[in-house]
Every structure is written in structure tokens, then in C-alpha cells.
Amino acid sequence: MTPAAPAGVPVPAPPTHAPPTPGAVALVAAGGSVGVLVRAALAQAVPAAPGGWPWTTWAVNVVGSLLLGVLLGVLQRGPDAGRRRAVRLGVGTGVLGGFTTYSTFAVEVQTLVAGGHVVGVAYALVSVVAGVAAAAAGLVLTGRRTRSAGAPAGAPGTGGRGDA
């Protein structure tokens, strides 16, 4: 039983989001299957050397972060409804969520550190910094592209006659 709020203290409203629909769940599942299969194929094609930098996981996570930033930058141009929502769920949460992998990253860091490999700490730090930087770069790139695409011809930043 939830205790009543003291007099004069506002009671927060319950969440207003609707539960996921079967179609939304199917989009995420289908997209996630694609992302996981691509990542698994890459990991098998280019396995990490024992005690070495796990390049495949690192590249997958950094590229995935960049693509998530780009996707977010494109999708934030309108409401999260209709096609935008379907793309966000299918491509963002699904494909890119399945493609990127925090669990493999965490296991690789733990294995490297437990094995006495100093590269494990560097891998953890560089991966997080590179992932955040890649996502930010994706947002910046789509932001610039959006402004340039919506600007009149010759406006600064569009590559037209108005640029110095």
C-alpha cells in the first residue's frame, strides 16, 4: 500500500506512456535479430587475440554509437509517432541495439583485467570515451546537415556564395 503524501505535497501523476504494442515488439525483435547476426558474423570473422585489444567489439560499439547519434539527429526533426517511431524502434532499439554490445564489452574488460592485462583498463576507458564522442559526432553531423538543408542558398554554412 502506498502511503499518502503529506498535506500540501503534490502527488506525482502516474506514467502516461502506453504499453508496447505487439507490432512495436515485433519491430524491435526483428531489428535486434539482424543486428545480432551482423555482429556475430563480424566477431567470428575477426576474433580478438587472447590478451589483446578486442578490435571487433570496439569498432562495432563505436560505429553503432555513431549511427545511433545520426539516427537520433534525423528522428528528432519531428514527433515520435508513425514512421519515425517505427524507424526508432526497428533500427535504433532493434538493429543498432542488437549490433552494439555492452555485455560482450563488459566480459572482455573483466577477462583482460583478471588476466593481468593492463590493456583491459585502457580498453574500458577508450571504449566509453570513443562511444560517447561518436554518438555526439553523429548528432553534430546531422544537426549541421539539417541546418544546411533548411537554409536558403548562399547562406553561411551551406557551401554557397555566402561562405568566406
TrEMBL record:
Keywords carried by this UniProt record: Cell membrane, Ion channel, Ion transport, Membrane, Metal-binding, Sodium, Transmembrane, Transmembrane helix, Transport
Reactions the enzyme catalyzes: fluoride(in) = fluoride(out)
Top-level lineage group: Bacteria
Membrane topology: Multi-pass membrane protein
InterPro entries on file: FluC
Pfam families in UniProt: CRCB (PF02537)
Activity control mechanisms: Na(+) is not transported, but it plays an essential structural role and its presence is essential for fluoride channel function.
Family per record: Belongs to the fluoride channel Fluc/FEX (TC 1.A.43) family.
Alphabetized HAMAP family for the sequence: FluC
Functional note: Fluoride-specific ion channel. Important for reducing fluoride concentration in the cell, thus reducing its toxicity.
Stated name of the protein: Fluoride-specific ion channel FluC
Organism: Cellulomonas wangleii
Lineage of the organism: Bacteria, Bacillati, Actinomycetota, Actinomycetes, Micrococcales
